């Protein structure tokens, strides 16, 4: 087949597929070297939220790098009913986030290899790839502890096991550090105005009785928005009296709230990629996983709702804020003391009492965190990352990074980018 005939054949195949999107045919693209089977994969994943779109982005990256897939996806919400076309769909595999039992039943009836990305509670028949929610709770607790808080709360849900895991991990991590945690349980419907007002009144009452300053984890960004609304109603200042962190980092919810909401960033891209990798293996005859594959969160995206240091000493707070804003600019302790009227001994003593580390250790902690983000998100050289993170020499950066992280910077970059062990 010459190049002209090959182009004509490809156009005919493409037009045939576009004309019949709900019943795609099995395609083999013949080349001079090999025959590539184009597998048909349905994506039953919500597009209405940032996390769902991140999952789809990870799926797209896997398909572009590793597989030949014809993917069918449509605009949908997490609670949407099963798409009508799924009943007669003749495909090869499914990636699904089962928001209700109807989705689970419909997907099961198709009878093709399937990977679940939301919860193993509904889709017990399918292997599961999703969020490590124990790591979510621990990360949020560590974030608040690093800010110096001693009073804590959690706005929790019990409707899914992953919400329970977040709560348990958050409370357990605080308890291990010697702190208790107050809890507010979200219960009951909120669809009617009267139900919403009763809930917000209960939430206001709970917020007012908390010792302050306090730090609260909301188990979802939606709960975080409701919590910030209750703080405004109760005339409780955020973040001065109450700091709030949500979970998921949904772009709409975190930015529409007042003030803007800090949130735990889930690694939807990596979850989508790993789920695609597992599905591809299953469609090739491989065995499904028998245990969940859990992916840890990326980190806390700090916005106005937790952008504060929990201390009554305004000069110490200003000094720590200066460190966190300028650590990657190569500052020294002398620069901090020039910016804030504190003595070196006051700064040293205050940091050790509040953060359990010295000012210099805090500077290095911020720099290492920045370096980890650059290793994950950029192609900068190790030398470039050391410079961008505020280190004076590459050698010192390499030594300190290995001391803090237990591996070299190069090994860390490889571990965060390479596919996880299946």
TrEMBL record:
Q: Which Pfam families does the record match to this protein?
A: HTH_18, PBP1_XylR, Peripla_BP_3
Keywords for the protein's UniProt record, in alphabetical order: DNA-binding, Transcription, Transcription regulation
Which intervals hold domain HTH araC/xylS-type?
A: 317-415
SMART domains this protein is in?
HTH_ARAC
Tree of life domain: Bacteria
Q: What is this protein called?
A: Xylose operon regulatory protein
**Native organism taxonomy:** Bacteria, Pseudomonadati, Planctomycetota, Planctomycetia, Pirellulales
Q: Which gene encodes it?
A: xylR_2
